[in-house]
Amino acid sequence: MTAYTTTLQTELHQVGYYDGPIDGIYGPLTVDAVKGLQADSDLPETGFVDRAAAAALDDRLADLDPQAAAADLTHTAAVQTVLTLAGSWHGPIDGWPLYLFAGDSAPGDSSGQGQGGVWYVLDPTGNAIDND
Prior knowledge:
This protein is an all-alpha fold and 132 residues long. The protein has four helices and no strands.
């Protein structure tokens, strides 16, 4: 997670949204920078890097260096996938939500799998997606 956040902070700094330390901590300064990017891109200001926010960041990076932007997009999705496999990421992968069971207490827990035959899929902001 630290490597992903460090990359995100670096990219947000490159395009003028982040002025804090490049420390790998997804704290208030990083959230505010993502919200700024989202606001300027006419996106909901969640502070989470979903598919739309990642695309907006990539567009701004592409204006600076088209080859570096393509490499960064691939790197972000790869890091998220590895973290999920290692049990350290419950966030979206490339903007697509993962499940989180209310009884899970730590990243990587999956005690909800198959319980009661009921699943709740969450969107990137943590709200249940209702298909009814």
